[in-house]
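Changelog excerpt

This revision adds worked examples to the README so contributors can see how folded entries look when concatenated. The first example is reproduced verbatim below.
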Amino acid sequence: MPAKLSKFLIHATCKEYAHPWTDSCINATTGLGLHAIQDCLRIYSTLYFITLLTKKRIPTVADLRTTFLSILQSTAFLSWSAFAYSSFVCLFRRVLGHFNIFTVSFVPSFFSSLTAILLERPSRRTMLCLYVSNIATETLFRMAVSRGYMYALPRGEIYIFAVGMASLLYFFKSKSNNHDSIFKVIRIALGPYEEKGYNVEINNKEEPLKMDRENCNSQNSVISVIWKSVRVYKSLIDRIKSLGGKHSLCLHPNSCLSHIVGGSFKMFSLGYCLQVGLRSLLHLKSLFTSPQQLRKLLTAKGSLDLAYFLGGFTGLYQLASCILRRMRDQDSSEHAIVASFVASTSFVMYPDNTIALYIMWKALQISWNHGVETKKVPEIKWFVIFLYCFSTAVLFHAAIVEPQNLRISYWKFLYNLSGGRIATMSRIPIDDFGLETSKNLQMIFQKSRTHDKHVFTL
């Protein structure tokens, strides 16, 4: 049954709704802010130090100083967002004399996000915007479905992914100077050979094997066996590399078959290692106590899903691209669209809303930036900031009024950031809106293994 709003205003006090654990708005806001600072320091210390380690070099004093300042700045951004949210909730109640469907969460979150995002580094704002917009898009869709305005399309994430990837790969093949991080990922997956502006002097001549058999001691049987094995291996590899040949417009080295099989195997291996590695980290404690579980982890159902997707996508895209060049005897940017749709069928092996929506938003961002560069669309200043604030406001509204429509992982994030205060805020006054908020909140507690039985000193 579609959800219907039965009331617009509620006349609850701040204590009755926002902070039932204390009479003081100041105490409630201070307690939330102090806890948020602790949690943010933990989050960003981990994030930035992992980033520092990925540079694969000994950090300099300048690196450590930059990392430390980045941790402080990002902590100030996120903790201020929590502190300001609580402040604005009570402020709007005092100014208006009541709460309404907008001021219980949406409007306070919008303004708190606006004041907070200005504290964060400009270079991180687009990434943050994409992250929250991704989750907000899914949340808005769930809200529309719950009201009967829209209907869920089976395998809809595959269509979203396919259209988004077609756009990205079209730009990858038609536009030079692709510096966005998403194109770095595409280069890893597909290689640089399909990218616009790729230039290579193809040298098909293999360097002769420098090892001269005559220089080997023919009387040494071990060296003789090794030498013969190397020759056989080299001969086998050369046959695979030349098997089937390649079109003159194909810029990849070796044959098309070798290119397709090699690329697919590389991404299959990467996908398997990533998924097993992530599962190992999530079960690290149990692996220490029961090492035999590692074997189950390596062969568990689902451990190959990501590998099938990544390997399949790379192989199908390269296969389609090579076939199109052979069939049409030309290379074209439009080939990327066709090949991308073919390759996107592999997403059925690892359908994920987060990936699909991220690709969609990335495609929209790059398409809009391209339109601005070519002066086909106007540049809208502050749009990233506005979209970030709007998306965050949608998520905070859902967390308070419609928690059943919020992604569980984001609910847990808000729960931990607030020290459980987001769960302890009373939904009884919110029930007057007619959306069965208290009932849905109990359902979320069960799914997320969270609760509202907290005791706060502030």
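The second example, added in the same revision:
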Amino acid sequence: MDGQRIVIVTGGTLGDWALREIADSDVLVGSDRGALFLVRHGLTPDVALGDFDSVTAEEMAEIRVGSRCVEACDPIDKNWTDTEMAFAWALERRPASIVLLGALGTRFDHSLANVHLLHEGLAHGIACSIIDACNEVRLIDRPTPVTRGRFTHVSLLPLSPDVRGITLHGFQYPLNQATLRIGQSLGISNVLLGESGLIELDSGLLLVIQSTDPA
């Protein structure tokens, strides 16, 4: 799947916004209830996987009919969340990029665990992001361009104990060879001056969170 994008739709908060993030060329993975979302919106998952403990027997029948392939596992005898299973499936196929939809929601533990999955993507050299109605989350360890798109704010938070040598270009609030440490809010709510900017850093793992307020 070199050159392709894999989109994982999982069982967190979903809506019409998620459909707008999906392109015809994407490889679609439905994770647990995310597969039902895809099927019910007229989209065909290339694979539906998980323990499917959040769907009824009737809903599971819909998923089986509407998906190209279904990989179900025992809900008790497993060590991964459904989203992590889908993410591992995607990593094995070495795509150009992976997008997670429905990976944020009311369960903060699952949301935070899904953010941590970005570290696995980075370790495999695959561009990964989590997108919801108001946010896009990425993890970087090297100079990275940022474009405005539909987002009004850019926040930077360290995922490692500290991130050193942060220099910002094209931002309202510049940083020059700065260090961000866990617990600091210095990187919150910056703004691009134009349509794009650049984040440079020397070491560490940096979460880049682009966000906008609900309409």
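Reviewer comment on example two: The longest strand covers residues 162-169. The chain has a mean pLDDT of 94.
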